[in-house]
């Protein structure tokens, strides 16, 4: 749809690919009253007029710009100064002058040489769009659509001129960014000019080889992709390199030094070094688009609608292993990076916390291989071996990672900045920043204690005792990690039990943490030692199968290698109290954490009043415990679980609605629910509201249902419990998954 004209008369000098495309875009979108164009070659100007690229033609730059309120210089950068000299006498006072050149320092030099200053209406520009083709015949009106255009206005820019030019480019479909001239030239030297130089140079080197035909004949697709840009216009590129000389030379020196190090590593068979560079580069390649667009590491916005369909009368039989524990996977990366030696992790679960942490350590120079099908190898650098990152550490959506890193980085010798996606950036960090400051950390937060967190390096931290006002495993872990770098003892007392994975795993890595009642304590200045970690299965995932086998008549199921950390086993305690038959076999310790195989056999369950002290220890398991309650004889009463009402969904209400949908009445209270057992589970359609635990809980309910259960909005299950559908089918739950666009 045509826009309102932004300029009355636009003059374009240089009708090639970029000038011609801009003329077409302006005309197609109705952004100017008239577009007048001129080129060094009259036949090109005529062609442009005859083919509707411009409205009017002029046969000199001076003629073209007369009475124009926007002048666009779209010639090769080395021709800019001549064009400016030619147009200056004819330029009207109110005209905005811009260009499209690929280097900006050279344009400003030409402007200052011709005008004696940098006028407030001269706004350099550079569209990040183009192709290897040049000339008017390659021009097209949608070249800039959804591309970026960088403007580098002077400090004294006339605001209305900047606004008009911005609207013109936006009208052409582009996104406008502004930056300084120097920054532009540095960024482009790194991201565009150096890669072009390498491509030109590589193809030239190979072309000079004796058997070059063979080399090119056998070159695979990757080579063609990599060298595509060597087909670009040599004259334009010769201009660019000479015009952006300083910034390009810096980049070449930087790159040559790094290439030299790789050469050295190959010569001296330093595989470790090669691995470090390659894995860091691969990770950066995979993650940079995510980081740039501010997304979470794990994409929870699934494209597909997923529905679970369950037939009644399945079974729960067999011997299975559910995915690894998220908290332990996360800590294995964190402690493995700080340990001396190599840590090999198996059973690793790729959650948001783990992936964000993995990337942050890579940014601080730690070599990490994987994750590859649950395997990660971390080449630890020791407590004092982290390198300063080149920029902010981007932690996606992981609040846990941000709080733990705040502690870990407060005592480093270098500065760091921690950032996250939009939702993490709204979460307050004062709960960790305040006590860290008491230890001597220097931390700046954004407004209201929100991210970004800026931590000043080189501070001396002093151990202290902290009484947590609110029980929080994240705050406790943060302070203990800071305590690794502090003088003396750091101790944290918790008002109620919280998860203790950090303490246990520190012990597992050989760093002593003691517990005295409700207080965890460590002394600074020790060391961690890497080793193998077979991450135990997540008890929260195992819980679905514990309930499945408890309610399915005749069931006998073994769950291998499950983490039974006492701060997480509320589900076992509650189910046993309801009469479940769960035995722990082969108890052992992995990385400081207790682990066992769990054998579960069917047993009739009875309703109970759930002990309130067990509620925090089973908070994630309640959706499936409600199914156990529905299958029990007698009433089950849950109180003291307000937290469940503010989870991914109002879990209690969503579960009550789901139960009602399959024929089970319950009563929701402010802090819990009352579920009378012994009612028939008739079947029906349950909306999980995208809550993965609700979806899986109702899949388990099918074992006692009389009719089919359909569960909608189940896409998130794949993120929290990869392979749930396959394992459910394996044990005999009659589940089919339907996905549609
Ligand atoms: P192009 O297709 O070769 O167009 C440049 C046009 O300017 C040619 O028609 C050229 O004529 C004409 N010209 C040269 N000197 C002139 C003068 N003194 N007066 C009037 N016209 C003159 O090049 P382009 O790709 O459009 O590039 C133009 C500018 O955009 C360059 O500064 C380049 O750095 C920048 N840029 C290019 C790309 C890209 O991918 N191509 C992307 C972003 C920015 P002749 O053909 O007779 O020389």
TrEMBL record:
Phosphoenolpyruvate binds at residues 326, 399, 427, 474, 651, 693. GO terms for biological process: chorismate biosynthetic process; tyrosine biosynthetic process. Residues 8-296 form the Prephenate/arogenate dehydrogenase domain. Its EC number is 2.5.1.19. GO terms for molecular function: 3-phosphoshikimate 1-carboxyvinyltransferase activity; NAD+ binding; prephenate dehydrogenase (NAD+) activity; prephenate dehydrogenase (NADP+) activity. It catalyses: 3-phosphoshikimate + phosphoenolpyruvate = 5-O-(1-carboxyvinyl)-3-phosphoshikimate + phosphate; prephenate + NAD(+) = 3-(4-hydroxyphenyl)pyruvate + CO2 + NADH. 3-phosphoshikimate binds at residues 326-327, 331, 472, 474, 620, 647. Monomer. This is 3-phosphoshikimate 1-carboxyvinyltransferase. It comes from Tamilnaduibacter salinus. The gene is aroA.
């Amino acid at each position: 749809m045509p826009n309102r004209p932004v300029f009355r008369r636009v003059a374009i000098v240089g009708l090639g690919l970029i000038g011609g495309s801009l003329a077409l875009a302006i005309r197609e979108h109705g952004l100017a009253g008239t577009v007048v164009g001129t080129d060094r070659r009259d036949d090109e100007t005529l062609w442009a007029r005859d083919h509707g690229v411009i409205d009017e033609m002029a046969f000199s730059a001076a003629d073209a710009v007369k009475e124009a309120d926007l002048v666009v210089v779209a010639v090769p950068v080395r021709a800019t100064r001549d064009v400016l000299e030619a147009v200056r006498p004819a330029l009207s006072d109110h005209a905005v002058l811009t260009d499209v050149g690929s280097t900006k320092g050279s344009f400003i030099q030409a402007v200052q040489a011709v005008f004696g200053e940098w006028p407030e209406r001269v706004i350099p520009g550079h569209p990040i769009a183009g192709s290897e083709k040049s000339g008017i015949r390659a021009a097209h009106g949608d070249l800039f659509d959804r591309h970026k255009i960088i403007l580098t206005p002077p400090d004294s820019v006339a605001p209305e001129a900047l606004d008009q030019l911005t609207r013109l480019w936006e009208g052409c479909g582009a996104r406008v960014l502004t930056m300084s001239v120097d920054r532009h030239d540095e960024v482009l030297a790194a991201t565009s000019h150096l890669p072009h130089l390498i491509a030109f140079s590589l193809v030239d080197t190979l072309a000079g080889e004796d058997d070059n035909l063979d080399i090119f004949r056998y070159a695979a697709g990757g080579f063609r992709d990599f060298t595509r840009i060597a087909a670009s216009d040599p004259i334009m590129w010769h201009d660019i390199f000479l015009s952006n000389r300083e910034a390009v030379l810096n980049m070449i020196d930087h790159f040559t030094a790094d290439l030299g190090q790789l050469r050295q590593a190959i010569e001296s068979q330093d595989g470790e070094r090669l691995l470090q560079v390659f894995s860091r580069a691969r990770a950066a390649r995979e993650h940079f688009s995510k980081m740039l667009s501010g997304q979470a590491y794990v994409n929870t916005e699934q494209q597909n609608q997923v529905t679970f369909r369950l037939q009644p009368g399945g079974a729960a039989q067999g011997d299975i292993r559910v995915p690894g524990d998220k908290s332990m996977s996360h800590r294995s990366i964190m402690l493995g990076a700080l340990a001396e030696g190599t840590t090999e992790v198996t059973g690793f679960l790729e959650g948001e916390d783990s992936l964000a942490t993995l990337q942050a350590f890579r940014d601080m120079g730690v070599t990490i291989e994987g994750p590859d099908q649950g395997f990660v190898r971390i080449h630890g650098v020791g407590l004092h071996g982290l390198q300063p990152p080149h920029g902010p550490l981007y932690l996606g959506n992981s609040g846990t990672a941000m709080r733990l890193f705040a502690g870990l980085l407060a005592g480093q010798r270098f500065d760091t900045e921690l950032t996250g996606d939009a939702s993490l950036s709204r979460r307050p960090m004062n709960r960790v920043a305040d006590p860290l400051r008491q230890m001597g950390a220097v931390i700046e937060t954004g407004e209201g204690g929100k991210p970004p967190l800026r931590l000043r390096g080189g501070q001396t931290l002093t151990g202290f005792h902290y009484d947590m006002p609110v029980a929080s495993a994240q705050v406790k872990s943060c302070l203990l990690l800071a305590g690794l770098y502090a003088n003396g003892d750091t101790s944290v007392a918790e008002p109620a039990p919280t998860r203790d994975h950090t303490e246990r795993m520190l012990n597992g890595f050989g760093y002593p943490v003691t517990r005295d009642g409700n207080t965890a304590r460590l002394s600074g200045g020790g060391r961690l030692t890497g080793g193998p970690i077979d991450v135990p299965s997540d008890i929260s995932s195992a819980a679905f199968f514990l309930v499945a086998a408890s309610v399915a008549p005749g069931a006998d199921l073994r769950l291998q290698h499950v983490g039974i950390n006492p701060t997480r086993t509320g589900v076992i305690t509650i189910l046993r109290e309801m009469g479940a038959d769960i035995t722990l076999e082969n108890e052992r310790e992995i990385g400081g954490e207790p682990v066992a195989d769990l054998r579960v056999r069917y047993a009739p369950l009875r309703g109970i009043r759930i002990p309130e002290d067990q509620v925090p220890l089973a908070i994630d398991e309640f959706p499936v415990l409600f199914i156990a309650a529905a299958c029990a004889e007698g009433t089950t009463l849950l109180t003291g679980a307000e937290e469940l009402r503010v989870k991914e969904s109002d879990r209690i209400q969503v579960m009550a609605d789901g139960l009602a949908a399959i024929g089970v009445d319950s009563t929701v209270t402010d802090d819990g629910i009352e579920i009378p057992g012994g009612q028939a589970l008739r079947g029906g359609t349950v909306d999980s509201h995208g809550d993965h635990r609700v979806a899986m809980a109702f899949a388990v309910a099918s074992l006692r249902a009389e009719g089919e259960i359909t569960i909608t909005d189940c896409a998130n299950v794949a993120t929290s419990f990869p392979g749930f559908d396959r394992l459910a089918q394996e044990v005999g739950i009659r589940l089919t998954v339907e996905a549609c666009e």
